[in-house]
Design goal:
Blueprint (H helix, E strand, L loop, with lengths): L1 E7 L2 E6 L10 E9 L2 H7 L11 E2 L3 E9 L11 E4 L2 E2 L19 E2 L11 E4 L1 H5 L3 E3 L6 H4 L2 H12 L8 E5 L3 H12 L3 E5 L3 H9 L4 E3 L6 H7 L6 E6 L7 H5 L2 E9 L13 H7 L2 E4 L5 H12 L9 E5 L4 H9 L5 E5 L1
Parallel strand pairs: 11-12, 11-14, 12-13, 14-15, 15-16, 17-18
Antiparallel strand pairs: 1-2, 1-4, 3-5, 3-9, 3-18, 5-6, 6-10, 7-8
Helix pairs in contact: 4-5, 4-10
Length: about 350
């Protein structure tokens, strides 16, 4: 089979390798769609190293169809359409026992410790099946949409921490795929949503998905627009969908008393922020993090897409074959797309 091998930072090589062999408690999928994630780009650039093997196959946002099942598999069959939550928790550590499975101390992931989906076929390890990370999909969801269920699940997890409801004012920093998913979730909850995004194409998509106030931070004053539209109180929630640590201190000044700052995006290791502690103290600002997803978030994501409440199709701007990986990654690194998907 063809597989895209990550050999070292900035080096991906398309190779012909052996199709994965499965054990009695495993399944093999033909990968129907696999999306490039911002984390994949960080791996590619050598910025993210934890759990990453070299050489290995990366790619953790994917969907596929079962082509082979192990002898002991009874809940799945050849031909089933499948989505997979790639992060596998242990179920035994402190975090897992306290409803924090998404940050399991011993977690492993497909595309990290296990070979990922930038290939024609993928082996789903027994531990993923036993942990309930494998989901059957109806034909209401396309394979390309299903590849985006994992990031949507992560956004649902982050959204659940933000107390967003009717008439909540939400400022989302960045209108990439994550920002646009958060936008849709906030609109479902009844919020008024501000989007700050310098890219005009992304602002247009945000507007089509229901954004109420669009801001070009390179040409407009973000603080002035937020305060003018909130009676100088600030917004209830700020969601950082881009990992620029230098922005954190300023964004705290845009939050209403008792409000929330969600540091949703991943940041570069050893990056720091200048923060005025008194703003947090006197205004009782809550700063929270959000990492990965819980299995129940994946189930919710499936339902939202099946019921056409979340539009993932509009986020997929480019589709490539695996053999076109150089162009795909080049485009992703230039931020010229919203979401890029490999399709077999």
């Amino acid at each position: 089979m063809k597989a895209l091998i990550f050999e070292k930072p900035y080096t991906l090589v398309l190779k012909e390798i052996q199709k994965p062999k499965i054990g009695k408690n495993e399944i093999c999928l033909i990968v129907k769609a696999a999306a490039i994630c911002g984390t994949d780009l960080r791996i590619y650039k050598g910025e993210k190293t934890k759990g990453i093997r070299k050489p290995s196959i990366i790619g953790h946002e994917f969907s596929g169809e079962i082509v082979e099942v192990g002898d002991n598999i009874i809940d799945f069959k050849i031909g089933d359409r499948i989505g997979v939550a790639p992060v596998i928790s242990c179920g035994k550590c402190y975090c897992c026992l306290n409803d924090l499975e998404n940050i399991c101390i011993n977690r492993k992931a497909i595309g990290y410790e296990f070979d990922g989906a930038f290939a024609e076929y993928i082996r789903i390890p027994a531990v993923a099946i036993e942990s309930g990370n494998v989901f059957k999909l109806s034909d209401k969801i396309s394979f390309k949409e299903a590849a985006l269920l994992e990031p949507l699940s992560c956004c649902i997890n982050g959204h659940s921490k933000c107390k967003i409801k009717i008439k909540t004012d939400v400022l989302i920093i960045g209108a990439g795929p994550i920002g646009l998913m958060h936008l849709q979730l906030a609109k479902i909850a009844g919020a008024r949503v501000f989007i700050s995004e310098p890219n005009s194409r992304r602002r247009e998509i945000a507007e089509s998905l229901g954004a109420d106030i669009l801001i070009d931070p390179q040409k407009e004053d973000l603080s002035d627009i937020v305060m003018t539209n909130t009676n100088n109180q600030g917004v209830d929630v700020v969601i950082m969908a881009i990992g620029i640590s230098q922005m954190v201190g300023h964004l705290i000044t845009l939050i209403k008393k008792g409000g929330i700052l969600n540091l949703f995006a991943g940041f570069q290791k050893k990056s720091f922020s200048d923060i005025e502690p008194n703003l947090i103290h006197y205004n009782e600002i809550n700063i929270i993090g959000s990492s990965a997803m819980k299995l129940r978030n994946y189930i919710t994501a499936i339902k939202l897409v099946e019921e056409n409440k979340i539009n993932l199709r509009s986020l997929i701007t480019d589709v490539y074959s695996l053999s076109e990986y150089e162009e795909a990654f080049s485009k992703a690194l230039k931020n010229e797309s919203i979401k890029i998907v490999f399709q077999n």
